[in-house]
Amino acid sequence: MDVLEKIMENSNVKPTAMRLLVLQYLLNKNVAVSLTNIEDYFDNSDRTTLYRTLKTFVENRIAHQIDDGTGVTKYALCEEHCNCEIDTDLHLHFHCNNCNETICLTEHKIPHISLPEGYVAENVNLVVKGVCDKCSGQ
């Protein structure tokens, strides 16, 4: 069994041809991508099929959604053994104002935030905006 099928099996996702192709695409990216990016890459594919594939990946914790403030949802693969739990798995994202790329900084976890009594967190998203290492020349 190859890596792609193992990822899907571990998440109880049926490995269809399109799911395997999209997963391979995401594995080859080191930045978060939008549905439009994926649609442009798979120019003969149906947008609805691609959206459903991404939705399946998010629901089964293969990928996560990122709201980087651009108004366009981005997607990136989750780390191995990620459960997308607020207290343990969420990490920082960096959006470059120059090249417009959004990068997962998985080694920088979002710390636990204590909310007032009665408040229940359902999602946490922390995006730092600035200039990435490629654009800054460092």
TrEMBL record:
Listed InterPro entries? FUR (IPR002481), WH-like_DNA-bd_sf (IPR036388), WH_DNA-bd_sf (IPR036390)
Q: GO MF annotations for this entry?
A: DNA-binding transcription factor activity; transcription cis-regulatory region binding; zinc ion binding
GO BP: any one term: regulation of secondary metabolite biosynthetic process
What this protein needs as a cofactor is: Zn(2+)
- Binding of Zn(2+) occurs at C96, C99, C132, C135
Keywords, in A-Z order: Metal-binding, Zinc
Q: Which residues form the signal peptide?
A: none
Q: How is the cofactor bound?
A: Binds 1 zinc ion per subunit.
* Keyword check for Metal-binding: yes
What protein is this chain from? Transcriptional regulator
